[in-house]
């Protein structure tokens, strides 16, 4: 990482607008390393570098939510499982209907608003997408 | 849809079984590497085993499967893999599926696998596949089943000494019933005498207690009451889970004017 800490890089790239979650991500990457922190938020270390460099072309808000859940202790109220870490919540939304358990089926319906249940306000799944 | 009781309960209610299940899960995760990695939770239906496990699942980010009646070894492994976001091909050999599942579980051996309805696996002679998965991945596996599950497991020679922790779900006590009342009938204050009767008539089963509490909420609302005790409950029926008695309809005439059939 050519001598510079992730934190310094983030400061240069984001300037005064450095969000708390990018700071948390950079600090954690300095404390451990980019690969470890990437694993914790469920992305590749390339994404971690891109985000710190303020150049990630994908869904930045989703990365932000994952970081807030994994590193900043953000919680949401899941209608099925109760209080839940935000990053785990996002992971659950990604998993389709696997048929593995009734809990999975309920999560699937609540995340998408299927079968007469109201779509969970924590869902980031676009309308109509399965 | 009867949505009379505005669903304010979100997620499992913190009963004693929930705490005990969580304690077992933590013990399994933090065990020393040389110790066996199976936990077994058993108890009659309606004791809240599944709800306790959902609470723990959420806390430790466990993977969960509920064994279906139609499942084969292949379905079992497929479902486990799909919970890890993998999509194995339909024709992948079982040995390879097992290898993949072992790899997925072993990625983070602090995340347990929770297997609900585990007695079905023993009945089908499929428990061995889980034993292999547990031993090779090192991830804890928690089996949940009915009261006879431990006895069934004892019959499988290689299984029973691999269980680190046996946990029998307990029936609800009065404290638990109060907690349930707070969650499922929050608008009415139910006195202890009625709560305790509900608990006894429900056999301590959380599932039946909840049905009775829901009924209590309806009774109180219909009568415009804020508090309810045994006296005010009067002759209302308790939900005990007993099926209705047979009615001997053959004793009645089948047609108007017809004779009763003996």
From TrEMBL, chain A:
InterPro entries: Lambda_DNA-bd_dom_sf. This is Transcriptional regulator. It comes from Bradyrhizobium ontarionense.
From TrEMBL, chain B:
InterPro entries: AAA_22, ExeA_AAA_ATPase_DNA-bind, P-loop_NTPase, RNA-helicase_DEAD-box_CS. The keyword Nucleotide-binding applies. Pfam families: AAA_22. Residues 36-152 form the ORC1/DEAH AAA+ ATPase domain. Keywords: ATP-binding, Nucleotide-binding. PROSITE patterns: DEAD_ATP_HELICASE. One of its GO terms (molecular function) is ATP binding. This is ATP-binding protein. It comes from Bradyrhizobium ontarionense.
